Amino acid sequence: MEEFYSGFAQRARDLAEKADPFTRRRLLDLAQRYELKSRPGSTYGRPSPPARATPPTVLFSGSGEA
Question: CB within 8 A of 1, min separation 6: which ones?
C-alpha cells in the first residue's frame, strides 16, 4: 500500500510542474498528504487526540424531571 500512495505522490508532483500556480500549490499539498499515507505506521498526518485525564463533566444536573 505504501508504494501505491508514494506513486500517487510522484504523479501529483509531476503534474504540478506543468500547472498554474494555484493548481501547483494544491497538487503539491496533495502529494504531501499521499507521502504521509505512504509511511508505514502513519496516522495519515493527523496526530492522535490526547487522552482524557478526567471523565467528561455533566452539562445538566438535577433530578431529570421536568
Answer: 38
With 0.90 as the threshold, say if the pTM is over it. Answer: no
Sequence ranges of the domains in the chain: 2-38
pLDDT tens per residue across span 23-55: 999 999 999 999 998 887 655 545 555 666 666
Are the C-beta atoms of 23 and 29 separated by less than 8 Å? no
CA dihedral 25, 29, 35, 40 (to 10 degrees): 170
Residue 10: helix, strand or coil by DSSP? Answer: helix
User: 48, exposed or middle or buried, with CB in 10 Å at 0-12, 13-18, 19+?
Assistant: exposed
Q: Hey, CA dihedral for 52, 56, 57, 59, is it positive or negative?
A: positive
Q: Return the residue matching grid coordinates 506513486.
A: 7
